[in-house]
Amino acid sequence: MATASRTKPSAASFVPEGADLAALRRAAAGCRGCHLYEDATRTVFGEGPEDARVLLVGEQPGDVEDRRGEPFVGPAGRLLDKALAEAGLDRAEAYLTNAVKHFKFTLDARGKRRIHKSPARGEVTACLPWLHAELARVEPDLVVCLGAVAAKAVLGNDFKVTERRGRVERHEGRDVIATIHPSAVLRAPDRDEAYQGFLADLRVVREHLER
Q1: CATH code where residue 46 lies
Q2: Is residue 53 assigned to a domain?
Q3: Which PANTHER family match (predicted)?
Q4: Which terminus of the chain faces fewer neighbouring Cβ atoms within 10 Å, N or C?
Q5: Are strands 142-146 and 105-107 parallel, antiparallel or unpaired?
Q6: 3 lies in a domain?
Q7: For the chain, how many structural domains are there in total?
Q8: Residue 6, domain member (yes or no)
Q9: What is the pTM of this model?
Q10: pLDDT in tens, the chain (211 residues)
C-alpha cells in the first residue's frame, strides 16, 4: 500500500516577496512554518539597519530573547556587546539575527526553568527562508556566523567551525566568516582563553571591513 508523501515543514509560504525588513518582521510574527512557534512566546526576528555592512547570525533566541522579542539581549548578548566594542565594532551599525526565529527549550525537573535545546536540522532548514530574505534585503559586505548551527545554515552542513573559524571565505557570492557562539565562551572551562579567541575572530571582521 502506497503511503502519502509528507511535505517538509518550511517558512517559505509565509515570507512576502520583495518585502522590506519591517514587513518581513510583521510577517514572521505569524509564521507557522514549523512546530516551534507552539511553545515559544513570540517570533524573535532580526534587528539592525537595512544597510548594515555586517550581518551577524546566531543559532536561535534564548529565554531572555524570547520574553523580550529581541535578539542577543541575554547573557550571551551582553558578552557579544563587550567583544564587539573591544574589537572596534559598533553593534548599532550591525544587523543581528538567528538561523531559527523561535526559542526551542525543555523544562527542568521542576517544570519551571526553560533550558535551551539545540534546534534539529529540519527545524533550521524550515526557518532558512527568513534568513535568506534578511540577507537579500540587507546585502551585507560580510556575514558573521556565530556557532556551528549558524555556520551550517549559511555555509552548508559539512562546515566545521573548529577547523575553519576566524577566516573570511567566499560562499555563493558572499564573504562569510565563522566563529564560536558567545554562549560557548560562557560555558568554556577557561572562559578567558575562549573570550580571547572569540575577540581575535571579531578583530578579523573589523580588519576585513576596513579594507
Answers
A1: 3.40.470.10
A2: yes
A3: TYPE-4 URACIL-DNA GLYCOSYLASE (PTHR33693:SF9), TYPE-5 URACIL-DNA GLYCOSYLASE (PTHR33693)
A4: N
A5: unpaired
A6: no
A7: 1
A8: no
A9: 0.94
A10: 344 446 789 999 999 999 999 999 999 999 999 999 999 999 999 999 999 999 999 999 999 999 999 999 999 999 999 999 999 999 999 999 999 999 999 999 998 899 999 999 999 999 999 999 999 999 999 999 999 999 999 999 999 999 999 999 999 999 999 999 999 999 999 999 999 999 999 999 999 999 9
